[in-house]
């Protein structure tokens, strides 16, 4: 897993997972994997799945890099504390999954709570040994 400042300001964690390193064959299978993780975690609540590729493709001036084959977000929230109204700003969380010819790229913004970052990183690491249908 790599850490970068996307656009020099957004703390982002991401990994390129070669298709040969996972039994998952589609963005939908990876989204289903993460959805099961969210639903199994009592600290998390599932909100939605968003097809970023379809949305952008439907826009008259939408642009998609030619190497992106599919792109979806799983939107969820870790709702363990609500100490003040400003805590709403960095929520909810999302994990983005893009399919390219030879790999999947999984990315998410750093969460304000380090334990939630660790949880999401662990979920991503589990993909290497995951077989769809075994969740």
Automatic annotation (TrEMBL):
InterPro entries: DUF6858
Protein's organism: Thauera terpenica 58Eu
Lineage: Bacteria, Pseudomonadati, Pseudomonadota, Betaproteobacteria, Rhodocyclales
Pfam families: DUF6858
Protein known as: Uncharacterized protein
């Amino acid at each position: 897993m790599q850490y970068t400042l996307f656009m020099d300001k957004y703390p982002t964690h991401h990994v390129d997972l070669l298709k040969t390193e996972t039994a998952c064959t589609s963005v939908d299978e990876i989204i289903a994997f993460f959805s099961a993780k969210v639903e199994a975690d009592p600290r998390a609540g599932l909100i939605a799945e968003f097809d970023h590729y379809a949305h952008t493709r439907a826009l008259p001036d939408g642009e998609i890099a030619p190497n992106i084959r599919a792109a979806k977000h799983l939107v969820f929230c870790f709702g363990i504390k609500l100490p003040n109204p400003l805590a709403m700003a960095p929520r909810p969380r999302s994990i983005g999954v893009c399919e390219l010819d030879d790999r999947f790229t999984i990315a998410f913004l750093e969460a304000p709570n380090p334990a939630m970052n660790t949880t999401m990183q662990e979920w991503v690491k589990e993909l290497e040994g995951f077989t769809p249908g075994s969740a």
